[in-house]
Design goal:
This protein is of the alpha+beta class. It has one domain. It contains 5 helices and 9 strands, in the order ββββαβαββαββαα. The longest helix is centred in the last third of the chain and has 21 residues. The protein is globular and about 60 Å long.
């Protein structure tokens, strides 16, 4: 399954099913392969909410996967972007070349060795010539509204967040892996044909 790894910290996104025109996701932040969220406090009070993996964040989007277009846009434009699921409320945000907390540093460099300056300037020149580099940093933040948790009857606008600091090449690989899985998912669940029934034979998904 498509998984981002940052040492023992990881994020897995899985397309679970396509039902009544909706793509359902299971999303797992993990530590050493184990779900970080306590499954006992996740919402499972009816059939809809019970359809989730152990310790998985549940989300869904209408018609097609929207995570892939987000990843594609961020990688192609190198600009901040985000996706908020139609239901329930989670947000996945990407910030290329920006570091949390996205404010000017409160410390300053008092000395920088000549070889470090030379390396930084060489890197800056290379980026001007070739564009973004494979080892550029990209911040990813996943926000999960507490509506995913048992007993929450409405959106709060508050919840828990997970932060990942990734290399561009790591995000590129994750995008490629998730895209390959989604192509197979669309075939398995007959997504194209079902969307054509609903929207006509000329239906085309967003580029992903």
């Amino acid at each position: 399954m498509a998984t981002l790894h940052e040492g023992d910290f990881s994020l897995e996104i899985r397309h679970r099913e396509f039902e009544h025109g909706w793509v359902y996701y299971d999303i797992w932040p993990r530590w050493r392969g184990e779900p970080i969220l306590n499954d006992a406090i996740l919402k499972r009070h009816n059939t809809h909410w019970a359809k989730r993996g152990v310790g998985a964040i549940k989300a869904c989007e209408y018609r097609e996967c929207e995570v892939l277009p987000l990843l594609r846009r961020a990688l192609e434009t190198n600009q901040p972007d985000y996706w908020t699921a139609t239901d329930p409320d989670i947000t996945l945000a990407l910030y290329p070349d920006r570091g949390f907390p996205f404010l000017p540093p409160k410390s300053r460099v008092v000395y920088e060795a000549p070889h470090i300056i030379a390396e930084r300037e060489a890197r800056d020149r290379k980026r001007l010539e070739t564009g973004p580099l494979p080892d550029d940093l990209i911040e990813m933040i996943l926000f999960v509204d507490v509506y995913n948790f048992s007993g929450a009857g409405a959106y709060y606008g508050s919840g828990t967040c997970f932060r990942f600091t990734l290399l561009r090449e790591e995000l590129q690989k994750f995008y490629s892996d998730l895209r390959a899985e989604y192509v197979l998912f669309r075939e398995t669940w007959n997504v194209q044909a079902l969307n054509e029934e609903e929207y006509g034979e000329d239906y085309l998904p967003k580029e992903f």
